Each structure stands twice: as structure tokens, then as C-alpha cells.
Amino acid sequence: MKTITKFCFVLFINITVCFGSFTNLYGQVEAIPLSDNKAIAIDSKVLKEQRSIWIHFPVSYNTSNKRYPVLYLLDGEGHFKYVSELTDYLSDYDRNRAPEMIVVGIVNVSRSRDFTPGKGNNNTSDTAGNSKFFQFVQDELVPYIDQNYKTQPYRILSAHSLAGLFSLYAQARNPRLFQASVLISPVVLYGENRDILNQYQAALQKNKNISEKIFITLGDEDSKNTDTLKNVLTSDAPAGINWKFQKYNDENHFSVTYKSIFDGLKFIYNNWFIDNYNPTIQSYSELQSYFNKLSDEFGYKAVPLEDLVNNLGYRQLRSGNTEEAIKFFKENIRNYPNSWNAYDSLGEACLKKGDKKSAIENYKKSVNINPDNKDGKEILKQLEN
């Protein structure tokens, strides 16, 4: 026993020494980035209960003055974690497949009550489960999110399985509440009851001027529900509805969700992509034109990612087009006024232009925002001496 104890002690010492040498050689271990998430409770007067809501904020939320589209997740407790990471991944600099967005997860209390018509299948009754839940979403949740956070008037609804039934009901009640939806292996028939589907079909026939994007998916499972929905859309969807169906034969009803939301967001934001490593956009006017078209498509002011604009600016700066680079960097400051890097980049461009006064001014702002900007401090020190 003593021998084993001695061996373990020596091994512990060796590991400690080795780890200490590793940290001395490479510096401190980088901390894992934290996600910006928040849990709130809404006391619903409609539902007469408290509802838990989980909110995920994009990376730039606290440094930007821009507003964000909102992705609402039914069955929030089952999808919030991976969808939050997925939206950050798709909107990141290297991918740039979708804009940054706020994610709102609605945690279930009574799933069957909220997503289905309730007793008697009286879908239009105020006492029906899905009617009350719809009122909560439309009259309490969405207004709360819009009033308290920086949102754009563009909402996406993600609905899996039974939640798909509620999605159709919500669109039938108010076709303009959500501008896009991802329906994942959706239930559209309540048993053999077509009441909600009939309401949805009637809404399509009545509202010929609505505009929406719908991405419908199915795993390796019975296609009765999705076939029925596809038939309705084929026969009655107005021209403003852009929809697509995707089947994943290698996924089942429960594993199909991740790919569905990944591909669904790419479908909704099909025109968003700009290849940062081989950009077709060169000038600032081209960037403006591109995002003006996106703004027209989505109905809100689309703002480019900070890293994208910064990269385009440095391309111009390295090519000797200093004035054009400054236009890009100023655009970032307008959209991300609390970003130290935006001021740092503009300071560098001003310095290259020979405008020492503006360079000092911008480096000072950068350092004030981020006192750990050592390079900025050093450059500022040289400029002020």
C-alpha cells in the first residue's frame, strides 16, 4: 500500500510539473467562450400561468446598435441549446450563410394542450388549447420580445412534430405573424381530423398577397402528413409563398431536427451568402447595393457582419485604396459603435492616409473600449510622442 501511495504521489508531482511547464511555455489556457443566454418568466394572463422563456443573443448584440430577426422555437427545452449554437455557427464570419439572430425558446407546460384543438375539436373557440396558446404567443410573448430586445420585424417559427399542427393554426389565424417557418416532420392531421388544415387552406385562398418562406422536412417515416400538406400548398399557395420539401432518409423522426433547421435557415436566407475568401464585392457601393436588395427581400434593414466589412476594408487598404477602405471601416462604426476593433481599423487607415489627428482620435476610442488592446496603446503612444 505504501509503495502504491508513493507511486501515485510521484505521478501527481510529474503531472503537475509537466502541466506547469506546458502553461509556462504556451501561456494561460484559453477560456471556453460563453454563450449569451437568458431565462425569463412571463406571467401570462391569457394562459393563467407562468411560462418559462429561454433567449439566446448573438455575439454582436452588446456591441452593435443593429436589430435582429427572431427565431421562435416551439418545444424550446428540446431544441434551444443546439439551435442557439447553430445560428451562431451559420452567421459566423467563415460561413456567413445567415444573419445573426435572436433565438427564443418556448418551454412546454402542456404540449398536447397548447398544440391541439382541445376537447370537441372546436378550433375557433377561445377555450381551445391551441387558441389560448396562440393568443399568448401573438398578444403577450411577441410584443414582450419586441419591446424589450433589439428585434427586426422578421420572425421565423420552428415547429417539430405535433408543434407543426400549431404552426398551421397560427398561420391560419394570422398569416403575418411569422414571415418564415421550418416545419420538421410536422403533424398536420389531428387523427383523421382536417379542421386545422382546412382553416390553413382557406387562409391561403383568402390571403393572396401574403409572403412567406416555408421549409418542410421528413425523416425516414410515414409521409401521409407531409404529402397532405404538400398537396395543399401545390394547389392553393399564393405566388408570394416560397416553399420547399426535403426528405432525409438517413434520419428518423427525432434525429431529423438538426439537419432540418440547418438547411431550413440556409433556404430562408439563400441569398445572404458572401464568400469572405473570394468576395465578388469589392467597393463600398457594391456592398450597399447588395444589402439594399436583402433589405427589400426581408422587409427590414439588413446589416452586414462586422468581420465581413472589416475584411473588405483591409482588402482595399492592402491594395492602396485607402479612401475606399475608410468607407468600409466607417460603416462598421455606424453599425457597431461599441466595437473596439472597428475604431482600431479606422485608426490604422487614417494613419496610412496621413491623417494623424483622426488616427489618434480613433485609437483612443478603441483603447477606451478595450484597455487590453496593447497594439493600439503602443501605436497611440508613438503617435502622441
Describe the protein's topology:
Layout: H1 2-26, E1 36-44, E2 49-57, E3 68-73, H2 76-91, E4 102-106, H3 111-115, H4 129-148, E5 151-160, H5 163-173, E6 180-184, H6 195-206, E7 212-218, H7 224-236, E8 241-247, H8 256-268, H9 284-298, H10 306-318, H11 322-335, H12 340-353, H13 356-369, H14 374-384
Parallel strand pairs: 3-4, 3-5, 5-6, 6-7, 7-8
Antiparallel strand pairs: 1-2, 2-4
Helix pairs in contact: 2-8, 5-6, 6-7, 10-11, 11-12, 12-13, 13-14
Overview of the molecule:
- The chain has 385 residues and is of the alpha/beta class.
- The chain is built from 14 helices and 8 strands.
- Strand 7 (212-218), helix 7 (224-236) and strand 8 form a beta-alpha-beta unit.
- The protein is elongated, with a radius of gyration of 26 Å.
- The N and C termini lie far apart (68 Å).
